[in-house]
Amino acid sequence: MIDGVSLDQLRVFIAAADEKSFSAAGRKLARTQSVVSHAIANLEARLGVVLFDRSSRYPVLTPAGASLLIRAREVIRGVEGLKAHARSLAGGLEPELALAVDVMFPQGLLTRVVSDFAARFPDTPLRLYVEALGAVAEAVVSGQCTVGVMGALPRPPPALQIERLRNVPLVTVVAPSSPLARLGRAVTSADVAGHVQLVVTDRSRLTAGVDFGVASPQ
Q: Is 196 left (phi over 0), alpha (psi -120 to 50) or beta?
């Protein structure tokens, strides 16, 4: 009847296997040898298998015991991981982090940050949203995300706590086949105005009526 197996029995089993002696396991766990022997016997009864061969002076793991020892260690590691994660949550660790990032943020850097986060906080899921302009701030203000990484806004929402991170240069480019690329001189605003410009649209209302770097009516 495996439902009656306790974590304490598994710990005694692991200690006995590691120490190769019931008496040594008792000393390690601050218990008497008889208590260790009784716990092992109860575990064997619950599992329905013999864990140790007791025919010699020191107990020796049976093939079944050696196989179950691996599982027992996994169970104890899982429980210890559960306890550690619970302590982290009680100490203020977020159960999940939702992050909104501007589409213009360097992808190489974002990839490294996500990888570092996964290595440092393996038990905390990361939900990543890629937005543009005011939609990043809006995701934080609405509570959808905890943190946002965005470019500068002319009128950031007062509810946000803003911290400057870094500069990201933005360069206007044209195709090699564009007439602008064949001018052979510095391109003026008048030159650009006669061509189609691709512009990122803000899905939020935070930048309504404000243009960023829009140089062409087309």
A: beta
Place of tokens 């005694």: 12
Identify the pLDDT of residue 1. Answer: 46
User: Is 4 exposed, middle or buried, given 0-12, 13-18 or 19+ CB atoms closer than 10 A?
Assistant: exposed
Report if residue 157 sits inside a domain: no
Same domain flag for 37 and 73: yes
Q: In what order do the strands lie in the sheet with 147-149?
A: 126-131, 97-102, 147-149
**pTM listed for this prediction:** 0.49
How many distinct structural domains can be found in the chain? 2
pLDDT at 94 over 70: no
Q: Are 28 and 11 in contact (CB under 8 A)?
A: no
CA distance 85 to 97: 15
pLDDT of the residue at 89: 66
Cα–Cα distance for residue pair 126/118, rounded to 1 Å: 8
**Looking at the domain assignment, is residue 119 inside a domain?**
yes
